[in-house]
């Protein structure tokens, strides 16, 4: 390799049995609290090369319950509104893959359910979503496949119901279960009952 040559900095990751890379991905980035959400939206739309009319933007924002909040600063929005706006901005260019890191952390039940509905809507449009969460009820509600990690090591991968079925008779899972085995019981049984903060 010569002094001015560059190493290849891209690669491809595929799930077992999956197709090649989708070509477009998005992550929820940090938004500016001082700027109005119109400014944040325009900034990210510009970065993605998206041209939408004011009417199209308003209609899209109204579809996620943010139409009336158009003039407010980002930091003035509730936590649920901020998360919905962040997801809206991450999906504004219609990526085939969205990376969401604990998108419902700290949200009230209503806001959490609204975000779950938006995630389901994106999935129904053919988007793939990689979601990290510590909430096993969230994983069970919105994920069609769950990977359980323990200290950076993949310990189980299946559908939520497949994991429950496979591990429901496991001695470690039975120890933590209170009644019918849940995905959370499987997680704790596989990763241990100590804190993982």
From TrEMBL:
- Could you tell me where this protein is found in the cell? Cell membrane
List the residue ranges forming a coiled coil, or say none: none
Q: Which GO terms describe its biological process?
A: response to antibiotic
Q: Which UniProt keywords apply?
A: Antibiotic resistance, ATP-binding, Nucleotide-binding, Transport
Positions of the UniProt region annotated as Disordered: 1-25
ABC transporter domain spans which residues? 1-176
Single annotated GO MF: ATP hydrolysis activity
- Please, which domain of life does this record's source organism belong to? Bacteria
GO cellular component terms, A-Z: plasma membrane
List the biased-composition ranges (Basic residues). 1-12
Q: How does it sit in the membrane?
A: Peripheral membrane protein
Question: What PANTHER family does UniProt report for this protein, alphabetically?
Answer: ABC TRANSPORTER ATP-BINDING PROTEIN, ABC TRANSPORTER ATP-BINDING PROTEIN NATA
Record family assignment:
Belongs to the ABC transporter superfamily.
Q: What name is this protein filed under?
A: ABC transporter domain-containing protein
């Amino acid at each position: 390799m010569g002094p001015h040559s560059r190493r290849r900095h891209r690669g491809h990751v595929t799930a077992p049995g999956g197709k090649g890379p989708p070509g477009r991905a998005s992550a929820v980035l940090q938004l500016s609290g001082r700027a109005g959400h119109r400014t944040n939206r325009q900034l990210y739309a510009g970065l993605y090369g998206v041209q939408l009319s004011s009417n199209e933007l308003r209609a899209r924002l109204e579809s996620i319950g943010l139409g009336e909040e158009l003039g407010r600063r980002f930091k003035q929005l509730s936590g649920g509104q901020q998360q919905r706006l962040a997801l809206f901005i991450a999906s504004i260019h219609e990526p085939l893959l969205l990376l969401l890191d604990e998108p419902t952390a700290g949200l009230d039940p209503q806001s959490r359910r609204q975000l779950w509905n938006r995630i389901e809507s994106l999935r129904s449009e053919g988007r793939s979503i990689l979601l990290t969460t510590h909430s096993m009820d969230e994983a069970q509600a919105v994920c069609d496949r769950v990977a359980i990690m323990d200290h950076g090591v993949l310990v189980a991968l299946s559908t939520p119901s497949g994991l429950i079925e496979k591990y429901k008779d496991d001695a470690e899972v039975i120890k933590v279960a209170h009644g019918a085995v849940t995905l959370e019981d499987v997680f704790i049984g596989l990763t241990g009952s100590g804190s993982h903060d």
